[in-house]
Design goal:
By secondary structure, the chain is an alpha+beta fold. Helices cover 33% and strands 14% of the residues. The strands form 4 sheets. The protein has a 7-stranded mixed β-sheet with strand order 1-2-13-9-15-7-3. The chain is globular. InterPro entries: Gig2-like, IPNS-like_sf.
Length: 413
């Protein structure tokens, strides 16, 4: 099994051809988009009304009560596509992880060895001191990924998806695989321009790849009302074009674990909490006012941009996370539009470990096994720039330091 698909040699020509084919398939392209636009206006208005009433747009759950979550809370997560789960880990444990990460970086002289490398995401990491640290194998990261609490949360979230449809079982929601990612450490007093609105896991691929066309089959059949953003059908068969921003795994939810207190005004994650907005994005690119070789600014090798020029109806719904504390976890549907707010003069630290939900399926298992090999070598995982800082670092865990779940997540058992 391969984790990438060969990219077209002529993207403008490929886009023109795909748009012609998809328009023919949709039929009444303007009518389908008008239908989705009306739905989006209703959803955006509902988000704005919630905010005006002072309600939390993000569903907030307590980890201790996860087994007793009622249908009203479940319906809120389905509608909003995001959640904060408080107390996934005790505050003291998260704060100790934060301190251990500082020690791990310091004793291996990360600051002295760091070299700027553009990773292709909105201009790459900032030159000088980074805020996104390209380390993957520290003790805290390995412990958090394989902790029973984390496994319980990810299993709970996977359960919002249809894992069996179209006569097939697409993934096992109760079984974890690893998708090792980085950490963010933004220091007090820092200034950050944030990240503009975008979606991950594919840009031009969402229109060009046959597997993605199957994922969005109802949208491209001119029946966007039938599109279910929680249907896992064909998602595990998508293999993106190779780049440093590709994702080789199917993530039901992207997520991170808070290692510090963060307020909604301190340059935090924001989302458009409307999972079905993907139907709008897909049909928007097929409208007559978009150039024939353009997909509303989508560029291979970059995240899919969401802009005022093409998607102004959606952006008023961008909503920041509520205040979070160390040990809380933050989750958003893998298709959700998200951004990171700008901040000037950061108050306190803003530290997180990126840990998504990636259930077991052949695609995820294959990538996790490759990550297991990278873990043994201390190398960067294949989806990320090959910076490989940790190959010689002291204090890096070994397989003997992992619990059975941690070894199984990486295909080491």
């Amino acid at each position: 099994m391969t984790s990438t698909t060969a990219a077209p040699t002529d993207f403008p020509a490929a886009i023109r051809a795909a748009k012609a084919e998809l328009r023919a398939r949709v039929g009444d392209v303007a009518g389908a988009f008008a239908q989705v636009s009306a739905q989006m206006r209703t959803e955006v208005a509902a988000v704005l009304a919630q905010r005006e009433r002072g309600e939390e747009v993000w569903p907030v759950l307590e980890f201790a009560e996860l087994a007793e979550v009622g249908e009203q809370q479940r319906a809120a997560i389905r509608r909003r596509g995001c959640a904060v789960i408080r107390g996934t880990f005790p505050r003291e444990r998260a704060e100790s992880w934060d301190a251990e990460l500082v020690d791990y970086l310091a004793r291996n002289d990360f600051e002295g060895s760091y070299r700027y490398l553009d990773d292709g995401v909105f201009g790459g990491l900032a030159a000088g001191k980074p805020s996104i640290f390209p380390i993957y194998w520290s003790g805290p990261q390995m412990e958090a990924r394989s902790d029973p609490n984390m496994a319980a949360v990810r299993g709970f979230l996977n359960g919002f998806w249809q894992h069996e449809s179209e006569g097939r079982v697409w993934f096992d929601p109760a079984r974890d695989t690893a998708y090792p990612d980085r950490v963010r450490r933004r220091a007090p007093g820092a200034n950050s321009a944030g990240l503009s609105p975008h979606t991950d896991s594919g840009s031009v691929e969402r229109w060009l790849l046959p597997a993605y066309q199957q994922v969005f089959r109802h949208v491209f059949a001119g029946e966007p009302a039938r599109y279910d953003p929680w249907d896992g059908a064909y998602r595990t068969e998508v293999h993106e074009y190779s780049s440093t921003v590709m994702c080789s795994a199917f993530r039901t939810f992207q997520g991170w674990t808070a290692l510090s207190d963060m307020a909604p005004t301190e340059g935090v994650l924001q989302v458009v909490p409307i999972p079905s907005a993907m139907a709008y994005l897909l049909l928007r690119a097929l409208q007559d006012d978009v150039p024939e070789d353009d997909l509303c600014g989508a560029v291979n090798g970059q995240a899919l941009p969401i802009s005022e020029q093409w998607h102004a109806e959606l952006l008023p719904a961008l909503t920041p996370i509520p205040a979070v504390a160390p040990g809380d976890t933050v989750w958003w549907h893998g298709d959700l539009i998200h951004s990171v707010g700008a901040v000037t003069g950061q108050r306190g630290w803003a530290n997180v470990m990126y840990i998504p939900a990636s259930p077991h399926c052949p695609k995820n298992a294959e990538y996790a096994a490759r990550c297991g090999e990278a873990f043994l070598a201390g190398a960067s995982p294949a989806d990320f720039a090959p910076e490989d800082y940790e190959t010689t670092w002291t204090g890096r865990p070994t397989p003997a330091d992992l619990n059975p779940l941690g070894r199984n997540q990486l295909g080491l058992d």
